[in-house]
Amino acid sequence: MSVTRALADGGHGQDSWSAAESAVLGEAVHCAPSVHNTRPWELTVHGRTAELRERPGLPAQHDPEGRDPRISFGAALANLVLAIGGLGWAAEVATGLAGDLVTATVTGTHRSRPTDAENRRRRALADRWSHRHAFDRRELPEGTRDVLLDALAAPGVTGRWISGPDEALAVARSLDYAARVFRGNTEYQRELTLWTNPRGHGVRPDAFGAVGLAAVGLTTSRTRLPDESLLADRIQQEAVLVVTTSADTPQDHVRAGAAMEQAWLEATSRDLAASVMTQPLHLEEVRTGLAQRLGLTAVPQLLMRFGLPAEPEVGER
Ligand SMILES: Cc1cc2nc3c(=O)[nH]c(=O)nc-3n(C[C@H](O)[C@H](O)[C@H](O)COP(=O)(O)O)c2cc1C
Predict the structure, then answer these.
(1) How many domains does the chain contain in total?
(2) How would you classify the pairing of strands 157-161 and 239-245?
(3) Is the pLDDT of residue 157 over 70?
(4) Residue 51: which domain range?
(5) Same domain? 156 vs 300
(6) Is there a single domain that holds both residue 148 and residue 122?
(7) Atom nearest to 67 CA in ligand 1
(8) Which residue has the higher pLDDT, 250 or 190?
(9) Tell me: the pLDDT tens digits for 96-138?
């Protein structure tokens, strides 16, 4: 975790985050999910303000437009706002762009109490994780789907549960297509190997799901792709959500990431597990094809799956 404290105010004044408060903010941001666990942001605190800046990185083969770092940034921003609320401040957020990179200035404007939902989600920050394995076969508890949709709803962002065999098949077709494209792309495979190097800081080598939707999240050249109808069956057995935005600007990617994190934390607070998948949707033909098949007018940005975690085997997490 790295938090820079700007020197201008020395950090000691009454109108500043204390060192302990800055550490809380840094820890919250550090817990956010990010593409290949890269944490593509920098946090600086000064006065009652926290500045989050996207860190420049090399364009990834699977994501030439840099969508994933911005979605990750949105998740970190959501965590930062929750943490500021937890310190007893109302947070005002101003997002912007510095060249191609997204930025956010979050200011604690006045003392304020967090809502119950904010408290619940903030307490779940450190417990959230990516569950890429099978779920328990039981259905989500009644009402959970609506709660998760509410958690992610934000201006310009909506969620839609995949429902019924036709929609499941539509998702399966899109994922199967994308997985074949990535599996045949040697440069993508090289990057994935780097990110899963046990000595590196990327995803854990056990991050590859074995069955169903999880199995097509990160596709290596060895991944056995399930056949479309089998994949569609598995999708129907899981609670799969597509998160969409009304437009497709960098700010929309940030919004999608913040919304994703709210839903993920809400699920975590209810002892549910989740994982996210964006890479198939980096292919424009997959975004438009999926939108068409599902009759969406908005842009699909990411897929999430939720479920009751099956007992993890020793060492699995
Ligand atoms: C924008 C974004 C894209 C991601 N894409 C994938 C993906 O396609 N497949 C996958 O298995 N995990 C994906 N992840 C999950 C990250 O790998 C994971 O959050 C990170 O390794 C940290 O692990 P944790 O979530 O268990 O804390 C993505 C996360 C983010 C924020």
Answers:
(1) 2
(2) antiparallel
(3) yes
(4) 3-127
(5) yes
(6) no
(7) 1
(8) 250
(9) 999 999 999 999 999 999 999 999 999 999 999 998 888 888 8
What is the 210 CA–ligand 1 centroid distance (Å)?
Answer: 16
Q: Select from 130, 262, 275, 306 the residue to mutate for testing ligand 1; criterion: most ligand atoms less than 8 Å from CB.
A: 130
For the Cβ of 129 lying below 6 angstroms from any atom of ligand 1, the answer is yes
The residue contributing the CA closest to ligand 1 atom 17 is: 36
pLDDT band with cut points at 50, 70 and 90 for residue 191: low
- Looking at the domain assignment, is residue 260 inside a domain? yes
Per-chain mean pLDDT for the chain? 87
Is the model's pLDDT at 250 over the cut of 50? yes
Q: In this structure, what CATH number is given to the domain that contains residue 120? A: 3.40.109.30
Own/partner pairs for 230-237, CB < 8 Å, 24+ apart? 231/172, 231/175, 231/176, 232/165, 232/168, 232/169, 232/171, 232/172, 233/168, 235/162, 235/168, 235/171, 235/172, 236/162, 236/164, 236/165, 236/168, 237/137, 237/212
Share of the chain above pLDDT 70, in %: 81
| Residues 74-99 pLDDT 10s | 999 999 999 999 999 999 999 999 99
What gap in Å lies between CA 24 and CA 86, rounded to an integer? 9
**Could you identify the atom of ligand 1 that is nearest to the CA of residue 204?**
21
> 171 and 253: one domain?
yes
Of 72, 101, 127, the one marking the end of a domain is: 127
Of 213, 210, 219, 209, residue with least CA distance to 234: 213
- The domain that holds 155 is classified in CATH as 3.40.109.10
175 and 244 in a single domain? The answer is: yes
192 compared with 98, residue with greater pLDDT = 98
